[in-house]
Amino acid sequence: MTDRMDEYVIRFSGLSIGTHQFKYVLDTSFFEAFENSEIRSGDFEVEVSMEKSERFLTFQLVLSGWLGLECDRCLQDFRQEISVEDNFLVKLTDKQEVDDERLVCLPEDAFEFNISRQLYEHIYLAIPNRRIHPDGGCNPEMLAHLADYLLVEEDEESKDSEDTDPRWNALKNLKLN
Fold first, then answer.
1. HEC letters along 81-128
2. Which of 141, 145, 138, 149 shows the shortest CA–CA distance to 76?
3. Whose CB among 22, 24, 62, 64 lies 3.0–4.6 Å from 48's, allowing a Cys bridge?
4. What is the C-alpha to C-alpha distance for residues 73 and 141, in angstroms, rounded to an integer?
5. Contact 99/41 with Cβ under 8 angstroms?
6. What are the two backbone dihedrals, phi and then psi, of residue 137, each rounded to the nearest 5 degrees?
7. CA atoms lying within 13 Å on the CB side of residue 154
């Protein structure tokens, strides 16, 4: 990550106990700072609410925007709308706690926290498993090429009789009471 990530550092040591609000805008340069990212571009508005107590920082995130992704079907870029609301906890302790995705441990003498990794991970985990254009958005030329490679299904009876061992066909005729 680059020095650009410094703007996502929250220096909590000078803040009073209570709730504090932060707003960020994440653009393409934010996503480019993470190596080997599948995210090609993006634009997000982020609202962070941090509640500070003696030993804990509780973060509530609201992220909304879009990502530039590659379509799994036609391989062209498209925009995927993403909206995320989630929270996580930062604990100030010298003991390493159980590994939990919602718990981040910092040393007791820490005075700042870089939230960029959590923002990136929350957005990344909101990406759908199947990344395709909305209906009708795929490249028709690519869809035509894909259709050339699709297998045509035969009717079920002829397929069953051709592919099935004849001994199994005889067993199908048995009636169970």
1. EEEEEEEEEEEECCCCCCCCCCEEEECCCCCCEECHHHHHHHHHHCCC
2. 138
3. 22
4. 12
5. no
6. -95, -15
7. 7
Q: Under DSSP, is residue 5 helix (H, G, I), strand (E, B) or coil?
A: helix
Predicted pLDDT of residue 2: 47
Task: Quote the Cα angle for 113-119-120, to 5°.
Answer: 120
C-alpha count within 13 angstroms, C-beta hemisphere, residue 38: 16
Task: Single out the residue of 73, 80, 82 nearest to residue 121, CA to CA.
Answer: 82
Distance of alpha carbon 171 from alpha carbon 4, whole angstroms: 70
Q: Which amino acid makes up residue 137?
A: G
Sign, CA torsion 18/19/24/30: positive
SS3 135: coil
Q: Output the CA angle 78-81-82, nearest 5 degrees.
A: 130
pTM, two decimals, is 0.75
